[in-house]
């Protein structure tokens, strides 16, 4: 299993810490060692799966296809006012990542990064109506040459570490990693009004595999 670089330091420290706990139990209460060792192993595996990074190629690189930027479940599809960059209505698609989903974020389209801004904020649960404007978040806009697509990584009650690797002026390729949200949360995608959607509320999607929309 491929591990994302964001998890390597966390996992190394956790491995050492759990090893010390097991060693201490072995020294002080050896009768409890089997239970503690199993619990430590399960806990380590739980954290390990948060940082898995499966290799995925998009089935077809195409300017008119918008792939899911994250694994998870579609929780919002609506026309919404986007106040930060467009300052106008757009079609919003939101994907909620649970703790068991892959947490890597991937470019849904190819193009030029026009905007990238990090906002510190609160840690409301990801499905809270105000989470997209009040939580810690990073907003990125990619210009495809034909239109602009906005993505917003949103932290939640557990996810308090947003990583974004893009820079303004950078040319990005559809399907490549652009960020990571530790322990889940949400990614919003804002599309032009009238965009044909290929997903529905409650549908489970996979980054680089599920086409969420088709640009006209």
From TrEMBL:
This is Phosphatidylserine decarboxylase proenzyme. Heterodimer of a large membrane-associated beta subunit and a small pyruvoyl-containing alpha subunit. Pathway: Phospholipid metabolism; phosphatidylethanolamine biosynthesis; phosphatidylethanolamine from CDP-diacylglycerol: step 2/2. It comes from Neolewinella aquimaris. Signal peptide: none annotated. The keyword Chloroplast does not apply. Its EC number is 4.1.1.65. The chain crosses the membrane at residues 33-51.
């Amino acid at each position: 299993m491929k591990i994302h670089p964001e998890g390597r330091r966390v996992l190394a420290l956790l491995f050492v810490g759990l090893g010390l706990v097991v060693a201490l139990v072995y020294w002080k209460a050896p009768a409890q060692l089997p239970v503690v060792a199993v619990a430590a192993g399960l806990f380590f595996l739980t954290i390990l799966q948060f940082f898995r990074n499966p290799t995925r190629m998009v089935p077809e690189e195409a300017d008119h296809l918008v792939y899911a930027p994250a694994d998870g479940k579609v929780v919002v599809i609506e026309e919404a006012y986007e106040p930060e960059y467009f300052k106008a209505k757009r079609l919003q698609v939101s994907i909620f990542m649970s703790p068991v989903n892959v947490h890597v974020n991937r470019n849904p389209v190819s193009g030029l990064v026009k905007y990238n801004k990090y906002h510190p904020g609160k840690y409301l649960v990801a499905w809270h109506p105000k989470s997209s404007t009040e939580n810690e978040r990073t907003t990125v806009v990619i210009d495809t040459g034909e239109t602009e697509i906005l993505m917003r990584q949103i932290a939640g009650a557990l996810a308090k570490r947003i990583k974004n690797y893009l820079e303004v002026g950078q040319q990005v390729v559809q399907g490549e990693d652009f960020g990571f949200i530790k322990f889940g949360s949400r990614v919003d995608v804002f599309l032009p009004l009238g965009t044909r959607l290929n997903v529905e509320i409650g549908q489970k999607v996979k980054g680089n595999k599920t086409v969420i929309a088709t640009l006209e």
